[in-house]
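Ticket closed. Logging final result for Large ribosomal subunit protein uL30.
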Amino acid sequence: MAKIRITQIKSIIDRSERQKRTMKALGLRKINHTVEMEATPSIIGMVRKVNHLVAIEQV
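Final structure:
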């Protein structure tokens, strides 16, 4: 399966609790923190919910 690189580009301050929990579940802690994950349907769905807070690129 393909891998994607997810980087947090905006703060989660003043965001809904649901978005904060989604960012934590993705493993993102602070701005410019990057994680690599498999592009499974569940991960892609989580990224879509917070796409305004992250940058995504194919690896």
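The mean pLDDT is 97. No further action required.
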